C-alpha cells in the first residue's frame, strides 16, 4: 500500500512514518510465503499492505479505530490487494494458534498531559504513563494466538525502554531479540523478534 492512503480529516488514522517503515522492512525480510500473518493496530495499513503485496503470505489487519479499518479496506480495494480487516482490540478477537506471525507497531509515547487530545490519534500514539501499557497488554495475550513456532515482530523505542519491554516479555515466557534497528536524533527504534520459549 502506498503512503497516500486516505486520511479522512487527517487526524483520525496514523500515517506511515519511520517506525512503520522499519517494521515493514523487517516483516518483508522474515515473513514466509505460506505464513498466516496478523498486523495488530494497522493504522493506515501500510505494514500489512506491504507484506500482502511483497510476499505470498495470508495477511489480516486489525485495529480498534473504525476510521483506520475503513481506510485500509478502501485502500486495499483500490489497489487490488487482498487484505481482510477486522475491528478489535489487540489480539483478543482472534482464536488460539491462528497466526504464524504477529506484527505490531504499538502506541509507545509516554502520556503527556500537556499534549493530551482524547481522540483516535491520541490512542494511536500514546501508550499510557510509561508508554508501555498497550505493549504490555499485547504481550500478555499474543502467545495465545501464535501457532507452534510462531513469531512476533514488535516495534519499540528507547522512549519506552526497550530493555524493560524485553524483560516484560521474558516474564511471560517470550524471548526477545533485535531483528532490525535504526537510530534517530531523538530515539532509537527496534523491531524486536519475539518467540515463545520452549
Secondary structure class reads alpha/beta
Specify the biggest β-sheet.
Answer: 7 strands, mixed
- Count of discrete structural domains: 1
Shape: globular
Question: What is the CATH domain class?
Answer: Alpha Beta
CATH architecture identity: 3-Layer(aba) Sandwich
What is the gyration radius calculated from CA atoms? 15 Å
CATH topology: Rossmann fold
Which strand order do you get reading across the main beta sheet? Answer: 3-2-1-4-5-7-6
Identify low-pLDDT runs: 1-10
N-to-C SSE string, H for helix and E for strand: HEHEHEEHHEHEE
| CATH homologous superfamily grouping | Vaccinia Virus protein VP39
Overview of the molecule:
The structure is a single chain. By secondary structure, the chain is α/β, with parallel strands linked by helices. It has a single domain (18-196), classed as Rossmann fold. The chain has six helices and seven strands, in the order αβαβαββααβαββ. It has helices spanning 18-30, 46-54, 66-79, 120-125, 133-145, 162-171, and strands at 36-40, 58-63, 85-87, 99-104, 146-157, 174-183, 188-196. The protein has a seven-stranded mixed β-sheet with strand order 3-2-1-4-5-7-6, with helices on both faces. Strand 1, helix 2 and strand 2 form a beta-alpha-beta unit. Helix 1 packs parallel to helix 2. It is globular, with a radius of gyration of 15 Å.
